[in-house]
Design a protein that fits this description.
The complex is a heterodimer. Chain A is built from four helices and eight strands. Chain A is an alpha+beta fold. Chain A has two domains: 86 residues, no CATH class; 110 residues, Immunoglobulin-like (Sandwich). The chains are: A alpha+beta, B mainly alpha.
């Protein structure tokens, strides 16, 4: 995928934390390009009617605003150490108000005791909104599956019922829980290596697994 | 019971990345809308006079090379930043100028990170970190802010936010994983 052949880099947790910790508020600011940049791109690629001087996209290309992490908000938080408890409670309260998302369970996934070893780990969180629940999975890296797929499952504690939630193709993803499937009833979360053999049952080749804890 | 019913995962950000890879005009427009401010900000900080031109070149080059974007190797934003870094360096070289070192505000102090090389890299890394943090869901983002910016311990965060300790740890791991995905993307 590289255009320039740059070498892959590796960051330790400490390096990541140091970079994030030292991040000045100005790095959360964004400067949108002037409108003619898109017009030129569209014209160069022959999009729309831009060759005739009038871009279909002119003025219709709003730039995403980084309201999520405004410098003012960041600075105010950085300056408010003594008020930290109040701030923390406030932001969590706001989060609940904004999204109406409730976390109902969380699990840490490792390869301990599993047939396939990996250095990767993962976290799975079950979140619920008004219209249903879903699992958010974040892996430290994708385990090596070769030509096979990585598949996410939830399993009952007696291993009697297994429910596929879908294939994992990136290190973080969201997977809807079907109606009738809950973290209570399916407390084991599992990632397996599934060969492309048309068999939709669990291969038994689990590589990461965890158990949901209720918060 | 076996897995008779299958459900498609919904990956955050995938719609834009899929659209970009599809080669449609709308796909590029959506990618531009999502990431042009990030790319232009990087260019404006590194080479203010040529920022608009470099931003344009980045998206044109990315579009022409879109088959080489592989989302399993990192997010589109990071891939575009990788292209932008090289375009910026190209412009400086064409101008016969030395690639500038990023100064740290008005102090004039030069920022360097030994493990990552040149300051232009640091500038890009910092913008990618802010971008990565922005993609976290609300609660993990707030937890990460308390941990990274306030230096609060996991226990202090759990107590202050009334979020279970395991969830706090999970959110912080998730935050680190997200930062790593952006910074370790192959570009």
């Amino acid at each position: 995928m590289s255009l320039y052949g740059s070498a892959p880099r590796a960051f330790s947790d400490d390096e990541l934390i140091a970079l994030a910790h030292d991040l000045e508020a100005e790095y959360f600011e964004r400067v949108a390009p002037p409108p003619h940049v898109w017009d030129n791109i569209a014209a160069e690629l022959g999009f729309g009617d831009t060759k005739h001087g009038g871009s279909a996209h002119r003025g219709a290309m709003p730039i995403a605003s980084p309201s999520w992490f405004s410098p003012a908000r960041l600075l105010s938080i950085a300056a408010a150490t003594l008020l930290m408890v109040g701030v923390a409670v406030a932001v969590v309260t706001n989060a609940a108000d904004d999204s109406a998302v409730t976390e109902v369970a969380a699990a840490m996934m490792t390869d301990e005791g599993l047939p396939v070893a990996t250095t990767a780990t993962a976290d799975a969180v079950v979140l619920c909104e008004d219209d249903g629940c879903y699992v958010e999975v974040t892996l430290s890296a994708l385990p090596d599956a070769g030509e096979a797929n990585l598949e996410l499952w939830v399993i009952t504690s007696d291993i009697d019922a297994v429910q596929s939630l879908g294939n994992i193709t990136t290190i973080d993803g969201r997977f809807d829980l079907p109606a009738g499937v809950s973290a209570d009833d399916y407390p084991i979360v599992d990632i397996s290596i599934e060969p492309n053999d048309g068999d939709e049952t669990h291969s038994g080749q689990s590589v990461l697994r965890g158990t949901f804890d209720q918060p | 019971m076996t897995s008779a019913v299958r459900f498609s995962p919904v990956h955050v950000g995938d719609a834009i990345e899929d659209g970009f890879r599809s080669g449609s005009e709308q796909g590029l427009a959506a990618a531009y809308q999502a990431h042009s401010a990030l790319i232009h900000t990087l260019c404006a900080r590194a080479h203010p006079k040529a920022a608009a031109d470099i931003t344009q070149e980045v998206f044109l080059a990315a579009w022409k090379a879109r088959d080489r974007f592989d989302p399993s190797h990192g997010p589109l934003a990071a891939w575009l930043v990788g292209i932008a870094k090289n375009k910026i360096i190209d412009v400086y070289r064409k101008e016969g100028r030395r690639v500038p070192e990023a100064s740290n505000g008005d102090s004039g102090r030069v920022e360097r990170v030994p493990s990552t090389g040149a300051p232009i890299e640091l500038l890009a890394d910092k913008l990618l970190i802010s971008e990565a943090l922005a993609t976290l869901p609300e609660r993990p983002r707030q937890i990460v802010k308390l941990a990274f910016y306030q230096d609060m311990t996991h226990e202090q965060i759990a107590e202050a936010t009334n979020v279970p300790l395991g969830t706090v740890k999970s959110d912080i791991r998730r935050g680190l994983a997200r930062l790593r995905r952006y910074l370790e993307a192959e570009t």
